[in-house]
Amino acid sequence: MNAAPRDFRSEELLADVIARLIGDVRHVAVGNASPIPATAALLARERGHGRPYVSLLGSPKNTFWTDGARELFDCAGQGRIDVFFLSGGQIDGHGNVNLVSTGDYAYPKVRFPGSFGSAYLYYVVPKVILFRTEHSRRTLVPKVDFISAPGTNAPNVFRPGGPIALITNRCLFGFAQGRFTLDSVHPGHTVDEVIEHTGFEFERTAAVPQTPPPSPETLKLMREVVAPQLAEVYPQFAAQVFGITLPLSAGTASG
Amino acid sequence: MNAAPRDFRSEELLADVIARLIGDVRHVAVGNASPIPATAALLARERGHGRPYVSLLGSPKNTFWTDGARELFDCAGQGRIDVFFLSGGQIDGHGNVNLVSTGDYAYPKVRFPGSFGSAYLYYVVPKVILFRTEHSRRTLVPKVDFISAPGTNAPNVFRPGGPIALITNRCLFGFAQGRFTLDSVHPGHTVDEVIEHTGFEFERTAAVPQTPPPSPETLKLMREVVAPQLAEVYPQFAAQVFGITLPLSAGTASG
Amino acid sequence: MSGPIKSLDEALACIADGAMLVVPREVSGVPMAATRALIRRGVKRLHLVALPTSSLQADLLIGAGCIDTLETSAVSLGEFGPAPRFSAAVISGTIKMKDATCPALHAALQASEKGVPFMPLRGLIGSDVLKHRDDWKVIDSPFGNDDPIVLLPAIKPDVALIHAPMADAQGNVWIGRQRELATMAHAATRTVVTVDKIHDGNLLGDPLLAAGTLPGFYVESIAIANRGAWPLGLPDHYGVDAEHLALYARMAATAEGFAEYLDRYVYERRAA
Amino acid sequence: MSGPIKSLDEALACIADGAMLVVPREVSGVPMAATRALIRRGVKRLHLVALPTSSLQADLLIGAGCIDTLETSAVSLGEFGPAPRFSAAVISGTIKMKDATCPALHAALQASEKGVPFMPLRGLIGSDVLKHRDDWKVIDSPFGNDDPIVLLPAIKPDVALIHAPMADAQGNVWIGRQRELATMAHAATRTVVTVDKIHDGNLLGDPLLAAGTLPGFYVESIAIANRGAWPLGLPDHYGVDAEHLALYARMAATAEGFAEYLDRYVYERRAA
Hints:
The complex is a heterotetramer, with two copies of chain A and two copies of chain C.
Chain A: H1 10-22, E1 27-30, H2 35-47, E2 53-56, H3 71-77, E3 83-86, E4 90-92, E5 97-98, E6 101-104, E7 107-111, H4 118-124, E8 127-131, E9 140-141, E10 163-167, E11 171-176, E12 179-185, H5 191-197, H6 216-233, H7 235-242
Parallel strand pairs in A: 1-2, 3-8, 4-9, 8-10
Antiparallel strand pairs in A: 4-5, 6-7, 10-11, 11-12
Helix pairs in contact in A: 1-2, 2-6, 6-7
Chain C: E1 5-6, H1 8-12, E2 20-24, H2 32-41, E3 46-51, E4 53-54, H3 56-63, E5 67-72, E6 74-75, H4 84-92, E7 96-99, H5 102-114, E8 118-121, H6 128-131, E9 137-140, E10 148-153, E11 159-168, E12 173-174, H7 180-187, E13 190-199, H8 207-210, E14 213-214, E15 221-224, H9 242-251, H10 255-267
Parallel strand pairs in C: 1-15, 2-3, 2-11, 3-5, 4-6, 5-7, 11-13, 13-15
Antiparallel strand pairs in C: 8-10, 9-10, 11-12, 12-14
C-alpha cells in the first residue's frame, strides 16, 4: 500500500503529518509497536530542539518510568502527557474506538485483545491522535460494536482530553464537535476513494486539499537524524523504511 | 517514680505486662521513642522464638519499609499489623485520646504535636495498647478536650481495631465495651491511689489483684537477650535500665 | 519460622483451585516456569487478574482449562499476533470475561494495598467497559458540581504470583522499577515468588538494593526457577525468545496444535 | 532545555509568596539549607504541607513568619521536646492550622498523583480531626451497607521541596526507599530538589540505581547543598546533629532566643 512512486515512502508522509499534528507540546508518549507515531514524535523533537519530551513505551531506554506499570497512567492523570496515539479494531464517525470485540459482547464474532488504557487515556490526554493505517469499511464503521472509549462525552463529564485527528493510509481527518472532517487526502489517493472506503459520514469542503508531501529538509532530518534513533527501538522498521541498520548488536527492549 | 525497691525496675515490670498483652500475634509495630513497648515487643519475640515479627519505627535497621512513609499505614490497612501502641496528652474513660490541644481547639491552652497516625491506626489495628507512664488527673481525664481518635464507634463504622488496655506507672486497665476496668495494680501502688489520681470512672472488682512481678526467667531473658538488641535502637535507655552499653559505636538511627 | 525458599511445587501449593490469582503484565517478570508447573498440577477454576494485561501466560492458562474468570485490560501476543486461546475461549464462552482498562486494575489493587473498599478513577464514563461492569459504581463527586466519577471496588487476590531477578535467604525479593509487583504483594493475602537466583546477603542491608526490594515480610514462599520468565523476558536481564513465541503463536492457532504445544513444552517438563 | 542544576537561590525562585509547598517528614531528607535560604529571602504566606509530619523545618518557618497555613499531622522536635515556635503560633493564632492524620496526607497527595479529585480513607469517623475539617466529606460507601467512609480532597501543591543524597546532570534524583518523595513530585506542579552531590553518570542508566530514582522529567530545578539536611539527618548518610537540635530547642523556647538563633544560623549564612 505504498504511495504512488515518489521520492518518499508513505510511512514518511504519515510521520510528517503526525509530527505537524503533535505541534508545540511538552510530552508525547507513544504506545508499544507504533513505529510511525514514534518516527513522528522523534521528528517533532528534532525540530523542537529537544521539545517535546518523547516517551516510547515498551522501550526501557526511551522511557523514564520508575514507579511501575501505573506511572504512565498517573502521569497522564497529572496532565503531564500532552499527546498519545490510539488505534481500534473499529473506529466510528463519533470518534468511538473499539478494541474489544465485534458482534454482541456476550457472543462476539471477533475478539480483539482488549481496551488497554484507552478507556482512561482517551479522556485525559489533551491531544489523542487516532492512527489506523487500514482504511476500509471494516475498520471505519458507522457505529462501533463496543465502545472501549467514546469520542465525546456529555459536557458535565470530566474530560480534558480526546481525539483531535484520525490518520489513515488514505487521508487525514480532523475531529471537532463530535464529527470527523476530511482535512486532506494523501498524494495518490482521492476523495471519492476515501468516501468509498469509509463506513461513517464525515464533513468535507468542496475542495479537499492534498496532504502536503514531506519537504526535502524533513526527509533529510527523518532519514539522517531520526532514523538512527528509531533503529534502537524498531530495528526492523528502520531497516525496511530507512535502510538503517545499527552497527553490531542493535539495542533490544526486554519486552 | 520507681517501683518500691525490689529486684526489678518498674520499666521491667511494665515491659513484662505489655509482653503478656501482646499475646500470640504475627506483627507488633512500635512507634518512635517508645523504649518500654519496644522492650516488651522484643521480649515477646524471644518468647515466641521469632514470632511476632517486630517493627521498631524510627529505626531503619528494625523496619522493612521500602515503600516510603505511607507503608506503615498501608500495612495496617491491610490487616498486617496486629499490635500498636498509642499515647495521649489526655486519655479519657471512653478510651478517647487527645494528641492535639487542651482548651478550645480554636484558642488552645496547651498545644501538643498533633494526632500523628492515631486517627487511623486506632481504628484498624486489632490490639492497640495505650501507654502513658504519667498517671495523673492531668493525663487521665473525664473527657478529652480534643478527640484525636475515639475509643469506640457506632456499630456501623468500620473498625476492626481499637484499644484493649491502658498501662500506666501505677496500674493496668483493661478496655472493653467502651469502659476501662482496673485489671491490676502494680506492686507498691494501691487501688485508692489509682482512684485518687485517675480523672475518669472505671470498673473494678472488690479485690483488684496486684500486677504479677516479672519472673526470674523473664528478667534474665530481658536483661541478657533483649537488652542488647534494644541497645542498638535505644542506647541511653538500655544503659540506664539494663546497664548495657554497646561495644564501640552504637548503631544510631538516622532520624 | 521455616525459611521461605521451597521447591517450585511446594511454593505453589498455596494456590488452590478456585483462587483469585494476580499476575503481572508481560514485561514485568512473568512467572512462566511456575505457570507451567500449575498447569501440570492441573489447577482449576482460577480467577486470573492480569495486571493490567497479559500475553503468553494468560493464553496458556486459558488453553489448558485452568481459568474460570479473567479480569484484565488486554491479552495479546504483541508482535506475534493475537492470543489465540484467549480469543477462542472468549468467542466460545468458556471463560467469564471481566474487561477492564489498565489504570482501573492498578487502582483496584491499590485499594486493597491501602485497605479501602474502593478507589475513584477518571475516564470510563460513556464506555461499554463501564456498562458491562455492574461491580463498578458511578457517584456524583461530593467535591464537584454535577461531576460523575467511577468508583472501583478493591481487588483483593488470594495470591500474587511473580517472577523476579533475585531474592535473599530472608525472603526479600529484588523487583527494581517494577513497583506494581510490590502493590500486588501488598494487596494479595499471600505472595509466591520465583527468582532466577538467590542473592548472597540481605537485600535490605544495602540501601541501593533496598530501594528496589519487596520485603520478605510480604512473601509466603520463594522458589528458584532460573530464567523462570522464559520464553518471556525479564527486564534488564534477558529479552523474549522471539523464535519460541512465534512457534507458540503458530501452534496455538488450533486446539490440536495447542495440545501438542502443551505436551511438548509443559507436560514434558522439558521447559520447566 | 537548559540544565536543571542551578544555584540554590535560583532553584528556589519558583517558590512564590503564598505558594502551597509540600515538604517531607523529618527523617526522609529535609531540605534545611533550602529552608534557611527561603527564610533569608523572606518568603511569605506559605501554605506548608508537611507530609505527614515535621520537626525543625516547620518550626523554623513558622517562627520566621513565613507560614500562613500549616497542614500536617504533627510537629515536634522528638526527643528534643515540643516544637516551641509551632506551639506558640498555634496558641497565639498566628497560623491557620489544618490538623490531619498521617495516612490522610499520604492519600490526599496520592489523589493528585493519580489525577483523581479525592481518595477514601478508613478511620477518622468520630474524631475531632474530622470534625474540624469541613473540606473532608463523609459518604455512605456504595459498596457497603450503611458503611460511612471519609473522602479526602486531593492536595495539589504548587511546589514539592525535597533533599536527596544525589542527582545527575539530567535531573534524575536518587531517593531510595523514601518513595513518598516521588509521590510528592508526582503530585506537585513543580519539584525543587537539593542534593548533597552530583552523581557522575545517568541514574536511570543503571537498573540498581534506577529503582530508587525520581526521574528528572518531574524535576524543575536542582541545587547542590552538601549536607543540606543539616542539622537533621539524611537516611543512610548521616544522622541528626543532636547537639545542635538541643541548642535549637533551648534557644527557640523564647521569641528572643529564636530571633538570636535566626541571626546566628540563618541570616549569617554561616550554616547555609
